[in-house]
Amino acid sequence: MGPHPAVAAIRLAVRRVLHDVLHDALIERPEASRVTTPHRSSTLVADDRPLVLVACSGGADSMALASALAFEAPKLSVRAGAVTVDHGLQDGSDLRAAEVVARLGGMRLDPVESVAVTVGREGGPEAAARDARYAALDAAAERHGAAAVLLGHTRDDQAETVLLGLARGSGTRSLSGMAAVSGAAGRYRRPFLQVDRQTARKACLVQSIPVWDDPHNTDPAYTRSRLRHEGLPALEKALGKGVVEALARTARLSRDDADALDAWAADAERSVRDAAGLLECAKLYALPPAVRRRVLRTAVIGAGAPAGSLFARHIEEVDRLITGWRGQGAINLPGRVEARRQGGRLVIRQG
């Protein structure tokens, strides 16, 4: 008899991602063509096998992901390890991190480590914790030479991200949610974006894998927590089941649109600059609004504005220097960046 359907689902999701990681590794390192796949019978020596890490908090999603990685990796000649990040935001977090490390080690993942971080305050508690976590994961991946880091975000997380983007009114890119592949050189992979949260939890239950439920996930002080426990249930009550799946599908469609518009804007950006590299207002005006605003956003970030602090309203103000010019003065933007119209050119710089 085969595995429980929930276990089979998470293993299949991880297997597909591992195949992608191996494919990418072969492109980058053709000499590693002896990786075992279902169509290859030879194997790599241990030091040549690509390493894939799983970011594991000890919660159901990431523990399910760790278990699937531990099962699938040996069959594909992939080394599997794990990292748990101790944010230090709760009493006893170091002891919990040690417990997670022990459980991951029991799955025969290697290397396994706990990394303690200091969470700042910039951008709010959720954003600050996320920034600290990704910085720690980036450092761990570099330290161990990992080919990829797997993240346990589920379809439910994707739906929540889309709703948060909708609430911010930040456009198509914000509605596209989390990418299946992201980070430098495609470091981060999210195998569970098509897997619902309940499936991951069920997979842990039937495999008798202990999980830890972070109290922050039910704390109404956090926006995502309120959305998870109040907002989404209210939507499902009003609109019926299937809201989460529909929102995740919206993310996929929005990402395709956003990618196409970003590519268009990248090409257009080169054509709207003069010989000195300044943006020409007349040429910007001729662009479709969605493309023009992407060009402007890229230029503002390039001048030094932090992307995380730059919102749609900022870009709309800069856009008015092109489409609603009435002699207005400079626009002040995050990161001490200012944008002003001068002699038919748009000048964006720190000052």
From TrEMBL:
Transmembrane segments: none annotated. ATP binds at residues 57-62. Gene3D superfamilies: 1.20.59.20, HUPs. One of its GO terms (molecular function) is ATP binding. Its EC number is 6.3.4.19. CDD domains: TilS_N (cd01992). The N-terminal region contains the highly conserved SGGXDS motif, predicted to be a P-loop motif involved in ATP binding. Ligates lysine onto the cytidine present at position 34 of the AUA codon-specific tRNA(Ile) that contains the anticodon CAU, in an ATP-dependent manner. Cytidine is converted to lysidine, thus changing the amino acid specificity of the tRNA from methionine to isoleucine. Belongs to the tRNA(Ile)-lysidine synthase family. This is tRNA(Ile)-lysidine synthase. It comes from Streptomyces liangshanensis.
